[in-house]
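note to self: dont lose this again. the chain is below, predicted strucutre after it. 349 aa total, dont forget to put it in the shared folder this time
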Amino acid sequence: METNSSTVPAKILVYTTFAVVLTIGMREISSILTTVIFSIFVALLFTPLVRWLKQKGVPGWLSIIMAISLFTVIILVLGVIVVRAAFQFGSQIPIYQDQLTALANNYAKYIPSYEGFSIQSIVRGIVSITISLMINIVNGIVNASTTAGIVIVTAAFLLIDAANAPEKVNQEIGKQSELRFRLSNFSKKLVKFIVIRAEVNIITSFVIALLLFIGGIDYAVLWGVLIFLLSYIPYIGLVIASIPPIMLALFKYGPLGALAVIIIIFAVDALTENVLFPSMMGKGLQLSPAFLFVALLYWNFVLGLGGVLLSIPLTLVLKILLESFEETKWMARLMGPAEDMDEGEISSG
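---
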């Protein structure tokens, strides 16, 4: 017993050291690592399509070409539309800044000011932050388009291996049934999450973009794509993506128009996140809100903005990996919501 108890601090020290070294290493190569991770997720997203085409009798090389061609066409069409809209919107930002400043000043004069406390200065600060955020959003969209080609090429090579992964795994570990089951289970859960998360984000962004278009909000497609991407960021992603269309509605229809856009965006998101996503995903891959927030900070520290977008998928990868082994299942339960902990205690009791 003494030997076992004395090894616990040593194990904690080893695991902590490994985590710190791994974190530093990933941060040093974050620019390359982010592109590779995006490519991996794209490859996993299109792997079911490749396998389905192979089951229908399409040759493996042709199925991969068809999947990559589909992805390339989607990226090119959306890229042209979104980048064009982003440039147009960017050219209008000075006008929007003047409108927002005038609107804020009109409302600020109704709020009493106190000695040493100026409402006007606070309003100017809010306007400056809002405009700088909108500029950063436009620049981020334009800059992201330049890496799309690298992601497409890398994903194509990964798809070649991913499509043939089951055969390779079966040949290498055919006799190791337990390891084979764990790898298969890990792969299925990961692909399931990536596909369902993408589907839910597409539905959310499409419905919101359609309603914005019907409501006459400019650049509705641009905001739909932005909502699709930032919906991967827990809690704050949708809020950031909602600022530009809310501002445009405020300029066009006034406060009631902005309020209507807020209600539309968050009502659609509430339905998809609280009804559609849980029904498609199930409880097994849910994450604790507190752990998600910590993971968001961690991946932002390691990979920057790309890590923020990838925080949920990467954290789910870790949880699925921990769930695949009996000795680490308790750690996976810690990452889940409170219900998972209760079920784990019942089953262990």
